[in-house]
Amino acid sequence: MAEVLTDFVSEEYLQEFEAKYNDELKNGNGKASDETTFQYAWCLTRSRLLSDVKKGVTLLEKLLKSKSTDQTHKRDYLYYLAVGHTRLKDFNIGLKYVKTLLQLEPGNRQAQELEKAIKSQMETEAIKGAAIAGGGILFAGALVGLGMALLKKK
After folding, report:
1. How many CA atoms lie within 13 A of 98 on its CB side?
2. Sorting pLDDT into bands at 50, 70 and 90, what band is 49?
3. Which class for 16: exposed (0-12), middle (13-18), buried (19 or more C-beta within 10 A)?
4. What secondary structure letter does DSSP report for 77?
5. Which CATH code of 1.10.10.60, 1.20.120.1730, 1.25.40.10, 3.40.50.360 fits the domain covering 3-117?
6. Which residues lie in coiled coils (predicted)?
């Protein structure tokens, strides 16, 4: 599995970039530089808190839509959007972003590994879902059987 999906940023590191981002917002008339915004978003997508990951995804989506985005930065934005959405279990969206990156850079091994990891997580979640559904059906069947047994005793 791609290490980036299981590796978390330290709280200190996140606070450092959050302070830099907020400082630029305050001193830059409500605008932080694209570089600082990306660094902060990068940290957020690698946070343990899903609310942070969502905020990071939002910042990255804004950067991606920015007219000043060049190809080098677009690659990073796409990659971490895929990471963020995968961490949020939005697998189809994460897959969409990594496939867009692979269209731009077909030989990108990091993106290829991320694509495999996303597909693997999708399969794992599908198996978990099937197990939960199967368990629910068994439980419901047991309840029906118990109910019928109780009715026969009366």
Report:
1. 25
2. very high
3. middle
4. H
5. 1.25.40.10
6. none
Distances 74 to 38, 70, 81, 83, 139 between C-alpha atoms, Å: 11, 6, 10, 14, 49
- The token pair at 148 is 């019928």
DSSP symbols for 10-25: -HHHHHHHHHHHHHHH
Q: Which of 81, 83, 93 is nearest to 117 (CA)?
A: 83
CB-based contact 17:45 (threshold 8 Å): no
- Cβ proximity of 62 and 40 under 8 Å: no
Q: Where in the chain are the domains?
A: 3-117
Side chain identity at residue 66, one-letter code: S
Q: What is the distance between the alpha carbons of residues 143 and 43, in angstroms, rounded to a whole number?
A: 48
14, 47 Cβ separation under 8 angstroms:
yes
Side-chain-side CA neighbours of residue 140 (13 Å): 6
3-class state of residue 120 by DSSP: helix
